[in-house]
Specification:
The complex is a heterodimer.
Chain A: E1 2-8, E2 11-20, H1 25-32, E3 41-52, H2 54-70, E4 72-78, H3 80-89, H4 91-94, E5 96-99
Parallel strand pairs in A: 2-3, 3-4, 4-5
Antiparallel strand pairs in A: 1-2
Helix pairs in contact in A: 1-2
Chain B: H1 2-22, H2 34-37, E1 43-47, H3 51-59, E2 64-68, H4 71-79, E3 85-89, H5 90-98, E4 104-106, E5 115-121, H6 130-144, H7 146-156, E6 173-179, E7 182-183, E8 187-190, E9 193-195, H8 197-209, E10 211-217, H9 220-228, E11 234-235, H10 243-246, E12 250-258, E13 260-265, H11 278-291, H12 295-328, H13 333-347, H14 351-362, H15 370-395, H16 399-408, H17 412-442, H18 454-465, H19 470-497, E14 514-523, E15 531-539, E16 543-547, H20 554-561, E17 569-574, E18 577-578, H21 586-591, E19 593-596, H22 608-618, H23 624-637, H24 653-666, E20 671-675, H25 683-698, E21 702-706, H26 710-716, E22 719-724, E23 727-732, H27 734-739, H28 744-750, E24 753-761, H29 767-780, H30 785-807, E25 815-822, E26 827-834, H31 848-856, E27 859-865, E28 868-874
Helix pairs in contact in B: 11-12, 12-13, 12-15, 12-18, 13-15, 14-15, 15-17, 16-17, 17-19, 18-19, 22-23, 22-24, 23-24, 24-25, 29-30, 30-31
The chains are: A alpha/beta, B alpha/beta.
């Protein structure tokens, strides 16, 4: 998985490319750790993400919990397949999602 | 077990009676003179018709008289105290006492005057001037001292041995003499042979007359009648020539005078009362009745006669009964009436009377065996009774039964024998059984007509052993055993006759026997073994589809069954014939099997109808017309009548195959073998061929069809063989094979599964590489992105999130995964198998992985079988 981090003042964006699964979820978790401190607006761009498993969902859930205290978080460019994951897991109610 | 107990109880009861029989009645006042008995308070026994009876009537008119037909029963009565005196021939009573008759003694004075014993002469004897000849013989024998010598030997000295009397080599005539065989020393059985004064006299007279001698045994009360009827020429049976008897037959001159004495119960200390224990007494009785003089042989002979008469009378009686029953059902009233009268008359007549009428009346002047007369008598009796039972049984059958049969076109006769009578038999056989048993017991009266049956021989033995009770008990036990054995045999026959109790099979029809039976069939070629080990049965009417991947031996199996290929090993039985046997006539067996080939193989040089006619004419021997008619009938049935005269190459593939099927059917095979009948056809023609096969299946034709048409196989077969790797891998009903296959490879085949397999999955499993393989597999099967995604998700969530973390600390879980995709159902199944305790990966709660998989799959299933977890996710 490729993670591209873009910081624009108070706004931080992680663009994910490839697969967010058991193997790669720790990478995203590491990348976020410290980086989101003091961030007011977090965007996870999933336009190039092909695959998402429960391990990835847990990382997203952790980020959402932090952002609830200090600002907001959006998940953008979600494709149909990943959207279905969000829906069946109830994440679509927790996260702010923008479909592709 | 119960029967054994019952028999044991009965024997004990009989022995008890024996014991009681031995108990003495209260004694009367002691009798010391004849005059004392001439008093109504006393009962005296008198022998039927003899001198004793005559003397008792004359000299003891006041006493109560009781008549006995044999001396033995008189002795029994007196020793038991039922009589106060028994009047009889002195010599014989002396012999009885000497033979062991106990508790009795003879009064010293004689009763009345002495009386002549003489030879009774039949008025109907065929021998001219018999009386004169007897008298002449007696006169000569007296003059020579022979009679005195005989009397001295047999009677006075009681040294009974039969001298050698030469029998005439060229007899002038036949001499039939009646005697009793029951009075020692005159006429008695020593073992199984007759002996005594009278018997010697008979042989001496026979030799004197130069006649062939036949001796017949009668009771005293039957012997005069036998002579009267001409059954015997004369009587030599220690017979007193009483005035009463002289009215019926003539007598010779006196042979010797007899004296009449009176037997009374022995007084206290007077009789030699022998005290023996019960068992010792029983042993003595047994010894006397069976062992001494080989008397058991007599019993066996008697038993044989009893059984012979019973069985023959039973059989003939049944036939006669059936005949009478038929007569009673005729439309002709006089016949019906006559039959009814016959039945009434016989039923109203005591069997003894019937026997006497037959023996002394109807067959009186005919030389006929007594046993035969007995059989005739009992047959008539049994026939009368059984006809009534049959009639009742027939009337009990519902009228509708015969109407139904007549409506079907059965004649009246056929209706009766095929429909009515078998049902009636169910009604009357149980009753008939009881009647037959009573017939067996009734035969005990045949002693009246000189037949030595079981009862008669027991009398004979009693007359010798003076044993009052034991022979009777023995006889009772034997009758009991015989009646029971016959009842058991009849019950067996009954079970055989009642259709519902019979083994349920249809006569003359192959209901459960296999048409084809294959045992461990193997076919090898140098480089390949298409059949490894095949065992199977094909029953009549079965339609078996053989399915399976190419090259698994399906066609080879068919070709081995019909011996187009010679099996390497194993045995094939077709319709009971072992075809793999070298001596088997292969051509004949093949005629029982029709074969339809993939490439039709119609004879190219013959028109369609000739293709169908040839085999019928050449091999079945039908006429050309018959073959043509049958061929056209078949062609019409498959819609090819118009093409009868076409040549094979003028037909379409479908038409050719239909014609080929007609050719096979025309040979009336027991079974049809189809080797991929539609594989060479254009898809548009498959339907027409399958519909012909379908209609054969409906007609009940036994078939084995190798096919790739799964829907057809599922719809038309009664059974499916899935063949794989040279064996019948799974054999089951179509429902099982196509919807719930039990075995792995069957499922893969019938569901057209594509499979991805991974095993020995552990922590160091190359997860990314497998994900890639899974994606490639999905793309190859043209799965949607969503399906591939869900499959990958399933693998990751189950393995990475659940099984591997759980199994990390424990022993090997031995995880394997099969990913199967069924094109037909468009369904992917992820089949996980793993060891350890029963564990449902998503069973513990509503966690994230579980929710995810529930949402992404169409179903999840966990089973724990034989220590292995099976977890299946369907996508």
């Amino acid at each position: 998985m490729k993670i591209t981090k873009t910081q624009n003042g108070n706004h931080l964006c992680f663009a994910l490319e490839g697969r967010l699964d058991t193997n790669t979820a720790p990478e995203l978790e590491m990348a976020m750790k410290g980086a989101i401190d003091g961030v007011g607006e977090l965007t996870i761009d999933m336009s190039s993400l092909d695959y998402l498993s429960s391990a990835g969902l847990r990382v997203l859930l952790g980020a959402q919990k932090i952002m609830n205290k200090q600002g907001s978080m959006r998940v953008t460019h979600v494709n149909d397949t990943i959207m279905e994951i969000f829906e069946v897991t109830g994440f679509s109610d927790i996260l702010t999602i923008e479909k592709a | 077990m119960a029967a054994k107990k019952r028999i044991a109880f009965l024997i004990v009861a009989l022995l008890g009676m024996l014991c009681l029989g031995g108990c003495k009645k209260q004694e009367n006042e002691k009798i010391t003179s004849i005059e004392q008995l001439n008093n109504p308070a006393y009962t005296i026994g008198v022998p039927e018709g003899g001198a004793g009876m005559y003397m008792a009537e004359k000299y003891l008119p006041e006493a109560k008289h009781k008549t006995f037909s044999g001396n033995a029963s008189g002795y029994l009565a007196i020793s038991q105290g039922k009589l106060d005196g028994f009047v009889y021939d002195r010599v014989m009573m002396e012999f009885a006492i000497a033979s062991g008759l106990e508790d009795v003694e003879l009064l010293e004075e004689n009763l009345g005057e002495s009386m002549d014993v003489a030879v009774g002469i039949s008025p109907k004897s065929q021998i001219d001037h018999l009386k004169d000849k007897v008298n002449q013989f007696l006169a000569e024998a007296k003059a020579e001292g022979t009679l005195d010598d005989m009397y001295d030997r047999w009677v006075s000295r009681a040294e009974g041995t039969m001298p050698e009397i030469p029998m005439p080599q060229a007899p002038d005539c036949k001499l039939k003499v009646g005697t009793t065989g029951m009075v020692q020393p005159f006429s008695y059985y020593e073992g199984t042979t007759l002996a005594g004064y009278d018997v010697e006299l008979i042989y001496r007279f026979g030799a004197w007359l130069n006649a062939e001698v036949e001796i017949k045994i009668y009771d005293y009360d039957g012997i005069i009648a036998a002579a009267q009827a001409g059954d015997i020429d004369c009587i030599m049976a220690n017979l007193n020539a009483t005035e009463e008897r002289r009215k019926h037959i003539e007598f010779s001159d006196c042979v010797y005078p007899s004296e009449t004495a009176v037997m009374v119960r022995a007084g206290q200390g007077n009789g030699a009362v022998r005290e023996t224990g019960f068992w010792a007494g029983l042993k003595d009785s047994f010894q006397g009745t069976f062992v001494e003089e080989g008397r058991w042989r007599l019993i066996v002979q008697g038993l044989g006669i009893t059984i012979l008469i019973s069985v023959l009378s039973g059989i003939f009686g049944l036939c006669l009964g059936f005949g009478i029953c038929m007569l009673q059902r005729t439309g002709y009233k006089p016949v019906r009436l006559a039959a009814a009268v016959f039945v009434r008359v016989v039923q109203g007549m005591p069997i003894v009377v019937l026997l006497m009428i037959l023996y002394y009346g109807i067959f009186g002047s005919v030389d006929i065996s007594e046993v035969l007369v007995a059989v005739i008598g009992f047959s008539i009796n049994f026939g009368a009774y059984s006809s009534e039972m049959m009639r009742t049984g027939i009337e009990a059958v519902d009228k509708g039964q015969s109407e139904a049969a007549l409506a079907m076109g059965y004649t009246r006769g056929q209706t009766f024998f095929k429909i009515i009578f078998p049902q009636a038999a169910g009604h009357f056989i149980p009753v008939l059984k009881g009647e037959f048993i009573s017939l067996v017991k009734m035969t005990s009266v045949v002693g009246y007509i000189a037949v030595q049956d079981l009862t008669k021989v027991s009398d004979i033995i009693r007359s010798r052993t003076m044993e009052a009770f034991f022979p009777l008990i023995v006889t009772a036990i034997i009758y009991f055993a015989v009646a029971n054995a016959m009842a058991a045999a009849l019950s067996f026959a009954e079970r055989m006759a009642v259709p519902k109790r019979k083994k349920r099979s249809i006569k003359g029809v192959n209901t459960d026997q296999s048409v084809i039976s294959i045992r461990h069939l193997r076919k090898e070629y140098p480089d390949v073994t298409p059949l490894a080990d095949v065992s199977a049965e094909v029953k009549k009417g079965e339609v078996i589809s053989v399915i399976g991947p190419s090259g698994t031996g399906k066609s080879t199996l068919l070709r081995c069954i019909n011996l187009l290929e010679i099996p390497t090993k194993g045995e094939i039985t077709v319709d009971g014939v072992v075809t793999t046997d070298k001596k088997c006539k292969v051509n004949l067996v093949r005629r029982k099997m029709g074969m339809v080939f993939q490439s039709f193989n119609l004879f190219a040089h013959k028109a369609v109808i000739e293709n169908i006619m040839m085999g019928q004419v050449d091999l079945l021997g039908r006429s050309r017309q018959e073959a043509y008619d049958r061929g056209m009938e078949l062609l019409r049935g498959i819609g090819l009548a118009e093409k009868a005269l076409a040549f094979p190459d003028e037909l379409s593939g479908g038409q050719k195959q239909r014609a080929a099927i007609a050719r096979a059917v025309a040979m009336e095979p027991e079974i049809l073998l189809f080797d991929e009948p539609t594989s060479a056809l254009d898809p548009t023609m498959v339907g027409e061929v399958l519909s012909v096969i379908r209609s054969l299946a409906r007609q009940g034709m036994t078939m084995i069809i190798v096919t790739h048409e799964m829907k057809f196989a599922r719809d038309v077969s009664t059974r499916v063989w899935y063949m794989d790797q040279g064996e019948i891998y799974e054999d089951g009903l179509p429902e099982q094979i196509f919807h719930h296959p039990k075995r792995e490879r069957t499922r893969i085949f019938v569901w057209q599964l594509k499979v991805l397999h991974a095993e020995k999955i552990s922590c160091d499993f190359d997860f990314p590489a497998f994900m890639t393989r899974l994606e490639e597999f999905g793309r190859k099967q043209q799965l949607t992105q969503r399906q591939i995604f869900a499959m990958q998700l399933a693998v990751e969530e189950v393995l990475m999130q659940k099984l591997l973390p759980v199994g990390r600390g424990t022993e090997k879980m031995d995880i394997s995964l099969d990913v199967e995709y069924s094109e037909r159902e468009n369904l992917a199944q992820m089949r996980f198998a793993y060891g350890g305790p029963s564990f449902h990966p998503f069973g513990s709660g509503d966690d994230l992985s579980g929710r995810m998989m529930k949402g992404m799959s169409v179903g999840m299933e966990h089973r724990f079988v034989d220590g292995v977890n099976h977890f299946i996710i369907s996508i």
